[in-house]
């Protein structure tokens, strides 16, 4: 987007970011959070739904290059995919701001994850109950990197519904890892999922301090 004024050539000035994109003056803390999950589980939708600024997306039209490489079973209608990241921002309260980074879901783009995870305090894993297998490796990578996470069960229409305890067992999740229902299309639901992550991170921090 061009923010230049209509000054004569050579004397252009730049207006800077839009007023709605400016960080609130009351903000005293910012936290980086990553939104992860398999291909097509709703990461871009979540970031777009909850972000208070216009989200940055890197969605590209799917091409023949992905045929035979990307597993689109169950999401054959999908026509676009994230090739780098999604970015958004949400103020949890007047002091705390979350920067959201959505990761690409296709395994061939996972090499970008290391940079996106750098400095992240936690993650939200989106789970699609129609294709739970696409999240196994995602959770394994988070555990390997030691990144705390919560699981948001994205309730797609017509997707099978299972009790949380059955989903936890199927994903082999520790009892301490929070699991919550989430609708990636609904801002309030997405915000509640992020608040669950913040509460979980606070619990981990408090427990760590008590053991010192």
TrEMBL record:
The record's annotation in Pfam families points to: ATP_bind_1
Picking any one GO molecular function of the record gives: ATP binding
- InterPro entries of this UniProt entry? Gliding_Motility_GTPase (IPR052705), Gpn (IPR004130), P-loop_NTPase (IPR027417)
Instruction: Give me the segments passing through the membrane.
Output: none
Recorded hits in CDD domains, A to Z, give: Ras_like_GTPase
Sorted keywords for this record are:
ATP-binding, GTP-binding, Hydrolase, Nucleotide-binding
Similarity comment text for this entry: Belongs to the GPN-loop GTPase family.
**Name the record gives this protein:** ATP-binding protein
Taxonomically, what lineage is the organism? Bacteria, Bacillati, Actinomycetota, Actinomycetes, Kitasatosporales
């Amino acid at each position: 987007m061009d923010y230049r004024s209509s000054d004569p050539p050579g004397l252009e000035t730049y207006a800077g970011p839009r007023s709605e994109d400016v960080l609130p003056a009351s903000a005293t803390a910012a936290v980086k959070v990553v939104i992860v999950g398999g291909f097509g589980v709703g990461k871009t939708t979540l970031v777009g739904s909850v972000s208070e600024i216009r989200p940055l997306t890197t969605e590209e039209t799917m091409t023949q290059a992905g045929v035979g490489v990307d597993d689109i079973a169950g999401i054959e209608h999908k026509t676009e995919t994230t090739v780098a990241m999604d970015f958004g921002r949400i103020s949890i309260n007047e002091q705390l701001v979350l920067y959201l980074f959505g990761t690409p879901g296709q395994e061939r783009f996972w090499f970008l994850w290391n940079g996106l995870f750098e400095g992240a305090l936690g993650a939200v894993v989106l789970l699609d109950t129609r294709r739970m297998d696409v999240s196994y490796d995602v959770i394994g990578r988070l555990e390997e990197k030691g990144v705390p996470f919560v699981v948001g069960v994205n309730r797609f229409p017509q997707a099978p519904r299972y009790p949380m305890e059955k989903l936890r067992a199927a994903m082999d999740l520790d009892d301490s890892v929070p699991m919550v229902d989430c609708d990636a299309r609904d801002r309030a639901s997405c915000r509640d999922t992020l608040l669950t992550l913040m509460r979980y991170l606070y619990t981990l921090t408090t427990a760590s301090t008590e053991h010192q």
